[in-house]
Design goal:
Elements (H helix, E strand, L loop, with lengths): L3 H5 L1 H10 L2 H8 L3 H15 L4 E4 L2 E4 L1 H29 L1 E7 L1 H8 L3 H7 L3 E7 L13 E3 L17
Parallel strand pairs: 3-4, 3-5
Antiparallel strand pairs: 1-2
Helix pairs in contact: 2-3, 2-4, 2-5, 3-4
């Protein structure tokens, strides 16, 4: 059974196995070559077998190392894909905005680039429409309207005079 400290050495092993170099793995992982070597040694001790043949100026994978490298690489890639999916799905917020067509085109659209740069996790859907809307059956999250008497069923704030 692998301990949590042994599991942490899998990233070191994957890099060294892929690059066939402790030195190159250390550069990629921003650690010392000695740290990579120590992590590999700990992993080999936990598994009870050698994963690399250490030759002068090079390393090669043992048969066990080749098999283990394939599994570790696939597993780390699967973890990375799942983490990206979770981050992408959890971080996105959809907002439906209703605004008059002239306001949307002349004022809102020119500012959307800055808005998306500041809030990349928000997807804004703009519905440019004029006319009456029923506050009880609205199909928007926010509205920018030019009206004198706001409907009492909605929370309203003055945006500009």
């Amino acid at each position: 059974m692998l301990s949590s400290s042994t599991l942490s050495s899998l990233r070191f092993f994957e890099a060294a196995a892929r690059l066939l170099s402790f030195k190159a793995a250390a550069r990629e992982l921003h650690v010392t070559q000695g740290a990579v070597s120590q992590q590999i040694k700990n992993l080999e001790e936990a598994l009870g077998c050698k994963l690399f043949y250490r030759l002068p100026r090079q390393i090669t994978l043992t048969e066990e190392g080749r098999r283990f490298a394939a599994v570790v690489r696939q597993s780390l890639e699967a973890i990375e894909r799942e983490a990206q999916d979770i981050a992408a799905s959890g971080a996105t917020v959809d907002i439906r905005l209703r605004a008059g067509p002239s306001f949307a085109l002349r004022w809102l659209v020119p500012r959307l680039g800055n808005f998306y740069a500041a809030h990349p996790h928000i997807r804004l859907y703009v519905n440019a429409a004029y006319g009456y809307f029923d506050p009880a059956r609205r199909e928007f999250d926010l509205a920018i309207e030019m009206i004198k008497d706001p409907p009492p069923a909605l929370r309203c704030e003055l945006l500009m005079d």
